[in-house]
User: Which sequence fits this backbone?
C-alpha cells in the first residue's frame, strides 16, 4: 500500500515529495509546503487513491525536540551530549490525516513550517472540513493559513495574545493573560 | 409660529441622530431586516455550553455561526505534562456521556504507540464496556433529542435505562460516572460473575424497553413532523465536512471503523453496520435506535465468547503490576515506582489510532520523543467535526428546528472543546 502511494506521488510530484515512510504500520509522507494544496487535490481525485475524507489537521511544535533514548544512551557511556537542534525554519509541523473510504487506506501528510514566519497554504479549497481544523491549529500554534476564508481563533478569546500549545508557552499558563469579567 | 419652527428643528435633530446611528434602514423598510439571535452558551437545548449566533429572516435561519471554547480546558497541553497513565482520568471528561469508550480508545492508541497488546480477556471486557457506553450515549442522544422536540416521556424512559447502565458500570468499574477503567495493556479490574449476570439481565430486558421507545415515537405525528425532512444533508456534503459515526451512516454511507480497520476483537464478532438513506434528523435518530440493538448483540456474543485468563499484558516495563504483588515483591515494587513516577517510554515516533466511539471517529495522534510523557497529543474529537456541519444543516430551516438538529447530531461539548 505504501509502495503504491509512494510510486504515484513520486511519479507526479518528483522532488516535492521529501520522504515517504511507514511507522507502526501507518504510511506517512513529508512534502514541500508550497505544493500541499496540489498534492491534496491529486490524492483526492486520483481514481486509485481517492483520499476523500480528511479526518484531521493538527500542528506540532518541534522546538528543542530530541530523542530522549539517545540522550540516555549518551549518558550511559559518559559522552558529552549535544541535542540536535531543530532549525528554526523547520520548527512547526502541520499534519494532515486522511482516509480513502473506497480503498480503505489511511495516509498522513506532513509539512514543515517556518518558526519565524509561520505561514502555510490552506487546503480548504480541496477539503472544506479543513476550515475548523485550521482555525484550531491557528489558535493553538499561531500558524497562518493563507487562503483560509475565516481565520479566527477557535477556542481562545479573540484578543488573547499567546498561542498555548507552543512549547515556549508555560504549562501553568500566563497569569493575568485572560482578564476576569468585571463585576 | 415660533413653536412650530422649533418643532421642525427638533424633528430634524432626531432624524439626524437616528441616521448617525445607522438606523435609517430600519425606518425605511422594517420588514426587510434580519434579526440576529444569540442562542447559548447557557441554553437548555444546546447540550452544553455551545453558543450559536443565528441570523434570522422572520423565523427562517439565514446564517449560523457556532462559537466554541466555553469548555476549553487545554487537554492537549495537559497531556504534554503528564505521563501516559496520568492522562487516563482526563479521557473520562472528554465525552462524559460514554467515558469507557474514551478510556478504551486512549488505551488502544497508547498501546499502538508502545507496542503493547492486551490479553484476550481484557479485549473482550473492553468491547463489552465500549458497547455498553455506546448504548448509554445513544440513549442520551435520543432522549435529549425527543425532549427538545417535546416528547418528555422518552427522556425519562431513556434515563431510567441509563440508570440501570450506571449500576452495571458501578459493578464493573467501581464508579458510576468517571470510570477511568482501562490501563495501558489491560483493564483495571476483572469482570466478576455478578457483573456478568447484571449485564446479561440488562441486555435481556433492554430490547423490550427499546421497542417501547420505538412504539412511542416512530408513528407519532408530532415527532415525525418535527424531524422528517429536517436538517437534511447529502452523502457528498457529509464526507466533505468530515461527518463521522452515526451521523455519516444516516446519509447512507456504511463507514464504521469497527469494520474499516478492525481493532480489539470486533472481527470475531458478527454485527451489521446500520445505515439509513434519509440524511435528515429522522435518519440519524433511526441509525442510533438500530445501533443500540447491534450493540446488544455484540455484548451478548462477547459475554459468551469471553475466555478466562489474565486481564493485563505481561510486560513489566510498560504495564502496571498487580497491587498485591507490589506490596510483596521487590521487582514489582520497582517497576510500579518507575511506571508511576517516570512513565512508560514508548519508542520515539508517531502513531494515530482511531476507534469508532459513540459519537464517531475518536482518534488520538501521539508524537513520542521516547520520554515518559507525550511530546504532542492531538485528540480528534467527533463532536467538533459534527458541529462544523451545523451551519450547513440549519441553513434555511426554522429557528425551532435548530434545537432538533442539534439534538440529532448529538454533540458533547466536553469533547468538542477539549
Assistant:
Amino acid at each position: 500500500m505504501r509502495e503504491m502511494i509512494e510510486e504515484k506521488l513520486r511519479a507526479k510530484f518528483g522532488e516535492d515529495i521529501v520522504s515517504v515512510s511507514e511507522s507502526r504500520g501507518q504510511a506517512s509522507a513529508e512534502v514541500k509546503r508550497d505544493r500541499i494544496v496540489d498534492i491534496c487535490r491529486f490524492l483526492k481525485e486520483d481514481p486509485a487513491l481517492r483520499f476523500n475524507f480528511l479526518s484531521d489537521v493538527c500542528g506540532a511544535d518541534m522546538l528543542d525536540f530530541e530523542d530522549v533514548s539517545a540522550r540516555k544512551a549518551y549518558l550511559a557511556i559518559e559522552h558529552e551530549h549535544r541535542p540536535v537542534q531543530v532549525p528554526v525554519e523547520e520548527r512547526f509541523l502541520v499534519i494532515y490525516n486522511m482516509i480513502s473510504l473506497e480503498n480503505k487506506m489511511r495516509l498522513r501528510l506532513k509539512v514543515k513550517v517556518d518558526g519565524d514566519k509561520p505561514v502555510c497554504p490552506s487546503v480548504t479549497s480541496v477539503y472544506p472540513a479543513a476550515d475548523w481544523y485550521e482555525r484550531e491549529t491557528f489558535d493553538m500554534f499561531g500558524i497562518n493559513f493563507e487562503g483560509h476564508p475565516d481565520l479566527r481563533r477557535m477556542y481562545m478569546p479573540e484578543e488573547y495574545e499567546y498561542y498555548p500549545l507552543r512549547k515556549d508557552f508555560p504549562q501553568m499558563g500566563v497569569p493575568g493573560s485572560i482578564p476576569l469579567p468585571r463585576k | 409660529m415660533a413653536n412650530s419652527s422649533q418643532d421642525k428643528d427638533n424633528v430634524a435633530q432626531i432624524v439626524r441622530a437616528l441616521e448617525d446611528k445607522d438606523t435609517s434602514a430600519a425606518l425605511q423598510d422594517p420588514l426587510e431586516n434580519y434579526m440576529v439571535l444569540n442562542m447559548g452558551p447557557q441554553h437548555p437545548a444546546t447540550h452544553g455550553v455551545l453558543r450559536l449566533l443565528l441570523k434570522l429572516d422572520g423565523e427562517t435561519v439565514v446564517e449560523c455561526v457556532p462559537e466554541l471554547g466555553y469548555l476549553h480546558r487545554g487537554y492537549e497541553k495537559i497531556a504534554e505534562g503528564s505521563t501516559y497513565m496520568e492522562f487516563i482520568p482526563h479521557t473520562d471528561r472528554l465525552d462524559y456521556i460514554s467515558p469507557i469508550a474514551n478510556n478504551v480508545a486512549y488505551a488502544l492508541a497508547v498501546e499502538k504507540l508502545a507496542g503493547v497488546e492486551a490479553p484476550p480477556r481484557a479485549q473482550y471486557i473492553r468491547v463489552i464496556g465500549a458497547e455498553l457506553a455506546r448504548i448509554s450515549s445513544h440513549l442520551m442522544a435520543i432522549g435529549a433529542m425527543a425532549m427538545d422536540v417535546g416528547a418528555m416521556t422518552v427522556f425519562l424512559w431513556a434515563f431510567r435505562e441509563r440508570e440501570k447502565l450506571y449500576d452495571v458500570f458501578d459493578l464493573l468499574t467501581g464508579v458510576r460516572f468517571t470510570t477511568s477503567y482501562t490501563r495501558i495493556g489491560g483493564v483495571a479490574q476483572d469482570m466478576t460473575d455478578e457483573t456478568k449476570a447484571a449485564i446479561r439481565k440488562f441486555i435481556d430486558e433492554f430490547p423490550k424497553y427499546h421497542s417501547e421507545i420505538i412504539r412511542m415515537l416512530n408513528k407519532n405525528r408530532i415527532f415525525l413532523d418535527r424531524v422528517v425532512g429536517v436538517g437534511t444533508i447529502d452523502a457528498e456534503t457529509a464526507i466533505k465536512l468530515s461527518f463521522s459515526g452515526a451521523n455519516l451512516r444516516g446519509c447512507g454511507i456504511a463507514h464504521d471503523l469497527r469494520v474499516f480497520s478492525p481493532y480489539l476483537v470486533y472481527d470475531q464478532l458478527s454485527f451489521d453496520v446500520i445505515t439509513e438513506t434519509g440524511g435528515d434528523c429522522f435518519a440519524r435518530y433511526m441509525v442510533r435506535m438500530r445501533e443500540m440493538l447491534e450493540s446488544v448483540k455484540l455484548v451478548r456474543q462477547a459475554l459468551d465468547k469471553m475466555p478466562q485468563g489474565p486481564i493485563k499484558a505481561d510486560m513489566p516495563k510498560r504495564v502496571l503490576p498487580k497491587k498485591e504483588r507490589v506490596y510483596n515483591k521487590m521487582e514489582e515494587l520497582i517497576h510500579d515506582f518507575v511506571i508511576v513516577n517516570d512513565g512508560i517510554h514508548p519508542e520515539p515516533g508517531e502513531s494515530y489510532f482511531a476507534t469508532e466511539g459513540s459519537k464517531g471517529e475518536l482518534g488520538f495522534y501521539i508524537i513520542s520523543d521516547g520520554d515518559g510523557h507525550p511530546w504532542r497529543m492531538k485528540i480528534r474529537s467527533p463532536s467538533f467535526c459534527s458541529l462544523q456541519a451545523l451551519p450547513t444543516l440549519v441553513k434555511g430551516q426554522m429557528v425551532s428546528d435548530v434545537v432538533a438538529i442539534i439534538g440529532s447530531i448529538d454533540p458533547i461539548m466536553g469533547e468538542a472543546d477539549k
About this structure: Chain B has 19 helices and eight strands. Residues 23-29 of chain B have pLDDT under 50 and may be disordered.
